Amino acid sequence: MKRLLGIVAAGAFIVGIAAPAVAMGSGDAYENMQVGVTYTVYEPSFTAGIKAQHVGGNDLCPKGTEQNLMVLYGKANSQRLTITEGNPMCSDIGNGETVLRTTINGSPAFVQAYCDPASTKKCTKAGVSKFGGHLEVTLPGVNGLRATRIWIETYGGKNLSAHQLVKIARSLAPVGS
User: What is the value of pTM for the model shown?
Assistant: First the structure.
C-alpha cells in the first residue's frame, strides 16, 4: 500500500512539473508564443486555405520589449499574407489608402490598399487584390493579459481581397479559449 501511494505521489509530482512545459511544446506555435508575452495572442481559424510557413518573433523589438509575433503564410509564387501581433509594435507597416472601415469582434478596424500614389484613379477595395494592403485592429486583452494590435497584410503577385482580410480577422480568437 505504501508503495502504491509512493508511485501515485511520484506520478502526480511529475505531471505537476511537466504541465508548464507542455505549453512551450504544445505543437501549436500560437500557444507557444503566448507563454512568453503579456499581450493576448490571437489565432485565426480561417486563413483562406493558405498554410503557415513560419511562426516566431520578429527580432525587431529593442531589448526589454516583448517580441512581436509574426506568422508568414504562403509561398513566394502563391498567395501570401503575414499576421503580426504585438503591444507595442516594434516596426511599421506600409501606408495606403483607407478603403474599408468595419468592426472586428466589437473593435474598430480598417483596411488600407497599397494603390499607386501617383495614379489619378480613385483607390478602392479592389486595390487590395491588385496592389496588396493590410487590415489593422486592436483587440482586447483577456484573462488578465493586455490588448493586442494586429496587422494582417497581403502582398506579392496574388493578393487576397479586402473581404478575405476581414474574414481572417473575424476568425481571430484568443489562444487557449
Answer: 0.83
